[in-house]
Amino acid sequence: KSANPQWREQFDFHYFSDRKDMLDIEVWRKDNKKHEELLGTCHVDINALPTKQTNCLELPLEKHPGSLLMLIAVAPCTGVSISDLCVCPLGDPNERQQISQRYCIKNSFRDMKDVGFLQVKVLKAVDLMAADFSGKSDPFCVLELGNDMLQTHTVYKNLNPEWNKVFTFPIKDIHDVLEVTVFDEDGDKPPDFLGKVAIPLLSV
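Below the sequence we write its predicted structure tokens.
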């Protein structure tokens, strides 16, 4: 019941600078559980923003009255990556040695926010549920750790997909839980849930 809402929410996205990405924003109005109405959209060209600073933007909603006030910062994020099995970061002896040195006991208190480094190899899934009428699924896998989220590509028409991807995350809290969720891609519709596993970092 407000024409001037304040959300004060923060979202972190991993942005790879070799891509030309637009940040798409939609504002919706919800009357009840069944009725929703689009109040407007706006777009931000990430490449056009200055880096290493917080940009205060007032974005008018397209074809609708009103505007959004946002703070957007494009900053380097170290330690996060996606790679193939053949070129995974810890596969390089020099890089492995640098990481071991970075997290050795004598450097424990150098950066209190830099707790550790997690590498996850997502190989394959077996005997997934069929989500399509054809008896197949179009599965992809989403990994979440704290407010970091990365995902694999989609393997189409397959109940036993092989992704063979390597994901690396910086660990900011040793009590975080790695959540791995498998979804079925469903075109323009929200993806269907196929399963999930949660792995506390303290169990690794």
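The longest helix spans residues 93-102.
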